[in-house]
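Hi all, long-time lurker, first post. I run a small reading group and we've been trying to get comfortable going from sequence to structure in the token notation. Rather than ask abstract questions, I figured I'd post a concrete chain and ask someone more experienced to write out its structure so we can walk through it together at our next meeting. Sequence below, copied exactly:
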Amino acid sequence: MDQPPFGLTVLVDKPLTWTSFDVVNKLRYTAKSVTGRKKIKVGHAGTLDPLATGLLIICVGSHTKTINEMVGLTKRYEGTFRLGSTTPSYDLETEPENQLSIPVKDIDLLEKSAQLFRGDIIQTPPIYSAKKVDGKKAYLMARKGKDIEMRPAPIHISSLEIEVTNYPDIDFKMECSKGTYVRSLAHDFGQAMGCGAHLARLNRTQIGSFNLKDALSIEQASQFIELEYSNYLKTSVI
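-- Answer (accepted) --
Happy to help. Here is the structure in token form:
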């Protein structure tokens, strides 16, 4: 058989600067090494940007068949919007620009701005994203300086809580549907406040019933895959 009839679902705490593909590639290498196979299916259920941390669901072998089901699960995040400037990528992947005066902290204004983004809304993805436009990933065209028109899409934000203790940084917690770009939310929140904003920090804490507290480091996940496949190989011929 080309593919072992064995699978794993592994929760990984993705570190800062790693891409989701970096994690997949690392764990695929582990699976291939322990089995001696040239091809092992490995995928993830929901991309995290390089500057985001937190829960990444990795599916190995036969469990890759469940990825489509997991992608549609609701997600929870916590992070920080930074008021006063925007960035082309809507996060810190690109340099802040358009510095604007930050309004005096007004709890009512902040809460009214947050209320605009609760429930069913229409959101435009950032141009620095893997969203495809005319068959090409938007970020590849953006980096070449090409003009890109991103199509708005409906999303649902079940909850959005803000904390302003560190103003002008706005700490938040949220639950949202698939297809939500938190970077776009940061940008749009800044527009509503009239002073611009970008995403300064993002951590994914939950996907459906899968929780970050149960996640492994990349090294722990690699060791887990090696152990599970080794145990499987002792009792099965692949």
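A couple of things your group might point at:
The chain has six helices and eleven strands.
The chain has two domains: 7-71+210-235, 75-207.
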